[in-house]
Amino acid sequence: MQIELSSQPRPLNHYPLYWAECFGTAPFLPMSRAEMEQLGWDSCDIIVVTGDAYVDHPSFGMAVIGRLLEAQGYRVGIIAQPDWHSAEPFKTLGKPNLFFGVTAGNMDSMINRYTADRKIRSDDAYSPGDIGGKRPDRCSIVYAQRCREAFTDTPIVIGGIEASLRRIAHYDYWQDKVRRSILADARADILLYGNAERAIVEIAHRLANGETVDQITDVRGTAFFVKDLPTDWTVIDSTNVDKPGRVENPKNPYAIIDQSVCDASPNNDQAPAAEVKLEGKLARVQQKLEQRFKTVVRLPSFNDVSRDPVLYAHASRVLHLETNPGNARALVQNQGGQKIWFNPPPIPLSTEEMDYVFGFDYARVPHPVYGEARIPAYEMIRFSVNIMRGCFGGCTFCSITEHEGRIIQNRSQESILREIEVIRDKVPGFTGVVSDLGGPTANMYRIACKSKAIETACRRPSCVYPGICENLNTDHSALIELYRGARAIDGVKKVLISSGLRYDLAVESPKYVEELVTHHVGGYLKIAPEHTEQGPLSKMMKPGMGSYDRFKALFEKYSRKAGKEQYLIPYFIAAHPGTTDEDMLNLALWLKQNGFRADQVQNFYPSPMATATAMYHSGKNPLKRIRRDSEEVGTAKGEKQRRLHKAFLRYHDPANWPMLRAALKDMGREEMIGNGKHQLVPTYQPRDTGSYHSPRRKNSYQARSGRVKKGSLLTQHTGLPPRK
Asked: What pLDDT does 486 receive?
């Protein structure tokens, strides 16, 4: 087997169009034979099977991939939320000429279906009528198997968030065990991880040109089975890279440059920041990078990581260190006798390519087959615009960086403003309010490393933890200009910012905070401190409350200056790894002292492949070198303790008072029981403890979100006592 990877990708719009481009653009990608006949098609070249309802909008993965392939000249059909109990619904559009593309949708199907307490959800924001149960558990696996049953010899390509986050042996929260790669269970031919535009386009053209799917081994962002390792590659065992059994610090083979230029890293044996200052060293860095592109790191096998939590934490650490497209090495992992090869991550899209992907003629509404049925996920985003991708925050509980990468991919201002005009002219129900200009974060637009050479060499997991890297350009001027341009569009009355704000980054630009607070806050602004205590914050890779206090001061200052009464709504997470009962008590006291009451609360959710999930499962901290005797990370796992941590966040709910009183006594903190304003819970108990409801309107606020990183939603109160 020969694998030759390229670091210079072909631009998405530089491929020769497939012959079927003569059919033109479909008003909607067809979901039935009748629609295919209306378009003059006798067959589909590619069929996308998805667990979400088909909404032809750039916020929905099946629409982006489908329209991208259509723009390359292919006839693309959609099978959305098929009945998975037999293979017949997967034959609806006939046999695809090239391949099936299978995705669970915009969310992992298990997270979509179950709460953090493993209870079944009755709703599904990505289904018509908000009705749950429209897709199977482990959706990608089931759909791929049914596609195989329907047409045995058709290549199957799986991708999307579920496939991306389950590509290696991973801890599964719902079974409380380590599962093998989803590629093995799905019986698919190839897996695409991360943003898959580059990979899917190249694979489509190569299959169309006569290659077989097993010949496609050199595409970044893909995983596939191999029988033997290539003889011209250097193979490194991961335990030689990061030895789980060593107590002393061995030489760090991860360092691709001289240690003297890595001191910006918070941990020298962690991912160094590569502060390259000497011209002479850049050449040596480049030489070592070229060597890395012919090196594969062998991870511990599925059998090993499933039996040994320490090796699982070690494998997680190695995986996360190999995520920068500029220097990541290939990985290989044995899965019960089968070897799965993981090529390095895809090269991020350029601004021109982002504009290309978002500039297709999307219908921007659900497919007509759904009639008047409401699809909540669409309602949430139909008047919003995605301005960027990626996140360099690196929060350990969040899947954004793991899927989209930490290098920000930006659209041009012209493309974004043009989309707002399209929404104004095309989307039914638009009243002049743009609900969001954002993406994974609200304020990382056009923020990047000051040096491409440094960015290429850097191996830090976060650019903003434990502090903002000195090599990060924190200029928000492009975002300010974008906001002003959006407000100036005819017919636009208000532009709101609803995406999560990275407030520790925002305080570096007071002008941005003023612009945001003066023009783009609709009374409430959501931010995510996640916790107040350093124990859990250090495991989350989140800043301390000092950054929150600085932002709060700016927020209040500019709200007063604008003559507006506006409120901050902070999110907090209960039961995150590294959180003790004492930490939750201190958080509850902070909430009470600052007049906050939680209206919605969520416990930590161990999503597949997250660093925090590795902490949850292994009890080790993969942010540091893993050793047998390295730092232990405690986690609230039992139902009783997880309920207690949630109860601390809802200290004001009388239904929680008996549990909190008992816990405070066990903790030796009985002084926190009493009727004083500095005590947490009163001594008395109302007769009816099930009738408590938070006050509404100004004193309370509720929202819904599909994001895995969501914690509790809070609003500031005016000191009103709990209802009795």
From this structure: 98
Contact in structure between 204 and 74 (CB atoms under 8 Å): yes
Paired tokens of 63:
């629409």
Q: Which residue do the tokens 């699809």 mark?
A: 375
- Tracing tokens 């997250």 back to the chain, one arrives at 610
Three-class SS state of 102: strand
Query: Could you tell me the two tokens for 463?
Result: 């650019």
Give the 3-state secondary structure of residue 179. strand
- Picking from 570, 543, 539, 541, the residue whose alpha carbon sits closest to that of residue 555 is 570
* DSSP 3-state of 587: helix
CA distance 288 to 283: 9
Alpha-carbon gap, residue 190 to 197, rounded angstroms: 15
Q: Are 233 and 296 in contact (CB under 8 A)?
A: yes
Class of 12-221 per CATH?
alpha beta
For β-strands 524-530 and 436-438, DSSP reports them as unpaired
Per-residue pLDDT tens digits for 214-241: 999 999 999 999 999 998 999 999 977 6
Which residue in the block uniquely carries the two structure tokens 């695809």? 96
**How crowded is the C-beta side of 92, counted as CA atoms within 13 Å?**
22
What are the residue ranges spanned by the domains of the chain? 12-221, 548-724
| CB of 236 closer than 8 Å to CB of 311 | no
Flag whether pLDDT at 690 surpasses 70. no
pLDDT of residue 280: 58
Q: b/e per residue, 300-339, with b = 16+ CB within 10 A?
A: bbbebbbebbbbbbbbbbbbbbbbbbbbbbbbbbbbeeeb
Are the CB atoms for 332 and 3 separated by under 8 Å? no
DSSP classification of residue 582: H
| Phi, psi angles (nearest 5°) of residue 325 | -55, -25
Contact assessment for residue 623 and residue 396, using Cβ atoms and an 8 Å cutoff: yes
Of the candidates 251, 193, 263, 264, which has an alpha carbon nearest to the alpha carbon of residue 224? 193
CA neighbor of 4 nearest in space, from 207, 216, 146, 147: 216
**Distance in angstroms (rounded) separating the CA atoms of residues 140 and 198:** 21
- Is the distance from CB of 437 to CB of 483 less than 8 angstroms? yes
Amino acid identity at 361: D
Q: How far is the C-alpha of 709 from the C-alpha of 719, rounded, in Å?
A: 29
Tokens of 125: 């924001």
